[in-house]
Write a structure and sequence with these properties.
Chloramphenicol Acetyltransferase; 468 residues; 15 helices; six-stranded mixed sheet; 23% strand; alpha+beta
Amino acid sequence: MPDRLSALDASFLYLEDAVTPMHVGGVAIFERPRDGFDYEQVLCLVGQRLAYLPRYRERVVSVPGYLARPVWADDVDFDLSYHVRRSALPAPGTDGQLFELVARLMARPLDHERPLWETYFIEGLENGRVALVTKTHQAVVDGVGTVELGQLILDSTPQRCEPAEDTWVPRRQPSTTQLVLDAVSETVRRPGELAENLRAVVSDVAATAGKLVDTVGGLASVARTLIRPAPAGPLNGPVSGGRIFTVVRTRLEDYRKVRGEHGGTVNDIVLASITGALRQWLLSRGESLAPSASLRALVPMAVLEPGSMEFSTAGLVNNQLEAHLVELPVGEANPVLRLQHISHAMRAYTDTRRSVTARAMLKVGGFAPATMHSLAARTARSFSGRIFNLVITNSPGPQIPLYAGQARMAEMYPVIPLARNQALAIGVTSYRGAVCFGLNADRKAVSDVGYLASMIEESLAELQGRNW
């Protein structure tokens, strides 16, 4: 039987266009070891790990006439050096120059004629640092059998990569005749399949979300998602093809201090910090905010399958993500009250026996946030953008150093893709005592995202009682 894309994965391909590419990214910055860390070593490292990720050597093959969903097939012309690319900044490159390059890389769609991923090795950063930038299509990291490449190339100890013979032999790509015969055979067995596929081709996310909920595994109750439209504001409207990316790095200890003083979880405090920043950003744009004003965030959260005892390494691809709609009280001037509002809203989700704690997620091997952010982006794209203003993903990471080869990772920032009519997406992760925010924005609609980023730090300071 052909390895056919799921309805959800196929919709990601059908609905992708030049201004809303559907890939998730990550930016990892490394300290270069004394004996070096170069492009050839990155090629060796990625090549070794591909044995665990067969999907990364497969491309999407369409079925003539849309008789059935596309299939995965080995790329008979697979070229690792095409997917692992080398780039450089004019030395000494600043972080700002790196993130400008990231924005340009993320704005470009992936080539659908090849496996749907790319990695960039970027040299020239000041202080001898290098960076790895990853792009992986949401159809690849499916939450069933494939994790994100960033999870597999990082280790808890330095590793030397010894070149090994590549024994992979691609299977022959199915012929047009075989693709049609397989599609006809499936249609005979399941007559409704053809109509479902054609509907996915011509419909938008709002129309397909309902029928895709079962495919994803119960992302959230339909009643909770099909409520009133999201509040109007500058975050929602047609997006351009340009992107602007910026980051914020804060201390995990500061969130723990706020938790000790005011309660809530670290995730609640992250959301409250973002809320305070959004409030100041809206005010700086001359927006009028009533005390009851809010923005609605879609916040995907990990949950256990019914009957599961704990979140585990083996269970990462079997456990689910549920998308929760959270009202962010941007009209509230008091930072502590903002936190209390958010903690109350989140308690309904985190008090359930199915919720997954940060401690449980940290048991997952490798840098699990890379996979969790990919799955969170898939979750968000399964719903109509009309019901939320922005996506916020947050996945805790390890507090011990991680390495790519022998290079120690210093920082890591997620890059969450923008949906149609949504100008901002925020990814958050923690690593080695830091909480790192990646803000991906439309270059026209949110050109001042740098100001918004700076307000996250100010908002956190407010919660600590330093600025009010």
